[in-house]
Amino acid sequence: MRFVTGGAYNGKKTWVKETFPERFESHFAWINCYETKNADLADVTSVNASTIVIEGVEEGLKEGILSKSVNGEAFFQAYLAPLLEWEKEHEKRKVIMIGTDITKGIVPLDKELREWRDETGRLYQKLFRKADHVHLIWFGIAETL
Amino acid sequence: MSCFKEEQRTARGISFISGGVRSGKSSFAEKWAEGNKKRDGRLVYIATAKPTDHEMIERIRKHQHDRLLKNESWITIEQERDLSNICGQLRPADTVLVDCLTIWLSNEMFAHSEQRSMQEVQRNMCEALHYVQEACSHLVIVSNDIFHEMLPEAKETKAYVQALGQLHQYIVRHAGAAVKLEFGKPIWMKGGR
Is the dihedral of CA A23, A28, A32, A38 positive or negative? Predict the structure, then answer.
C-alpha cells in the first residue's frame, strides 16, 4: 500500500496519476470519500480491478466519527484493513490511499471537529506503519519518507 | 484550470520560496535574490501589502529597515494588484522579488474593482507572473504555506485556499528553484545549489 499525504490543494491526486500512469489505463477503482459513503467502501474489493485508490481518507473517517462515533482504529479495521487483505491476495494488486494533512492548524472549538482532527493524526500514524511507501507531496513534488 | 493548459511558454528564472509564518522566508528570499543579482541589473522589491493597521505598518517597516541595512540596495515598487502594470519599470537584467503571493491573491480576490471568476483571477495572475518574468532576469516569489489544517467552512475562504494551492502548484512546475523554509532552514525541493 502506498500512502500519499500532504496539505490541501498540494497536487496529491495529480501526482498519483502522473507517477503511476500504467495503473490507470484499465482495471482500477478510484473511490473519492468526498463523494462516496463509507458503506460503499465495503463493496470495492469485489470490483474487477488491480488498483484501488481511496482519495480523501480523512473525509471517510469524518463520516465514521459523525455518524457512528468510531475512532481512527475502528475506521481502519472496518473499511481499510479489508483493502490491505485484498491487496495481499495477488502480487499485481495495489492500494493507494490519499489523505490530506489537516493536523497542523488551530485547535477547533467544535468537539467533533477536534476529535476528527485527533483521530486523523492517529489514523495516519497507523497508515504510515502499514504502508510500503509513504509520499509527502509539496505542490506537486514528492518527498518519500 | 484553463490558463494552465493554454500556457505554452516555459518560464525560466523563477524561484519559489514558501513556508509558514515567521519561517524566515522573506530574509531567505532577499539573500537568494542578492546572491543571484546580475552585474548590470537592479534588485527590485514588489511590495504587495497595503498598510492597514499598526501591526502591519510595523511589519512593513521592519522589512524596509532590513533591506536598508543590507549592502545591496533595493528599489521598492508598491503594487497591491495587477502586477503586469509594473513591467514598463523593469529592465532585462533586473532581479525582481514579489513578497508575497498570499497578499497579492487576496488583493486580487477581495479588493479588485472588477467582479471576476476565480479562473479569471488565477489566469490573470499567472499571465502577470510570466510578463514580469519576461521583463526581468530572475523572478523570486514568496508565499505562505497555509495548507495543513482543516479547510475553512466559509465558501470564499475555501476558494482562496484552493486558488493559492493551485497557484503554488503552477509556479513550482515552472520554477527553476523551489524552496521550503522550515524555521529558518531552507529545504531545496527543486533546483538550487
Answer: negative
* Host H or E run for residue B19: strand B14-19
CB pairs under 8 A between A and B: 64
ipTM: 0.85
Q: Which residue has the cell 479489508?
A: A82
Parse chain B into domains and list their residue ranges.
Answer: 2-190
Question: What are the pLDDT digits (tens) for A4-29?
Answer: 999 999 999 999 999 999 999 999 99
Structure confidence at residue B11 as a pLDDT band (50, 70, 90) = very low
Owning domain of residue A117: 2-39+47-144
Query: What is the third-level CATH fold of B2-190?
Result: Rossmann fold (3.40.50)
Give exposure, A113-126, as e/b (b: 16+ Cβ within 10 Å). Answer: bebbbebbbbbbeb
Output the domain CATH number for residue A79: 3.40.50.300
Angle of helix B54-69 versus helix B25-35 axis, rounded to 10: 30
pTM to 2 decimals? Answer: 0.87
The two beta strands, B14-19 and B74-78, are unpaired
For residue B69, the tally of other CB atoms under 10 A from its CB is 7
Contact between B190 and A141 using a beta-carbon 8 Å cutoff: yes
Q: What is the mean pLDDT of residues B16-30?
A: 91
Domain count, chain A: 1
Output the pLDDT for position B161. 95
A122: distance to nearest CA of chain B, Å?
15
B118-135 and B155-174 helices, crossing angle to 10°: 30
Contact B102, B141 (CB under 8 A): no
Comparing alpha-carbon positions, the chain B residue that sits nearest to A58 is: B150
With beta carbons less than 8 A apart as the criterion, state whether B151 and B144 touch.
Answer: no
Strands (E), A2-118: 2-6, 28-32, 51-55, 94-100
Please check the confidence at residue B1 and state whether its pLDDT lies above 80. no
Instruction: State which residue of chain A sits closest to B172, comparing Cα positions.
Output: A139
Higher pLDDT, A97 or A40: A97
CB contact under 8 A, B169 and A104: no
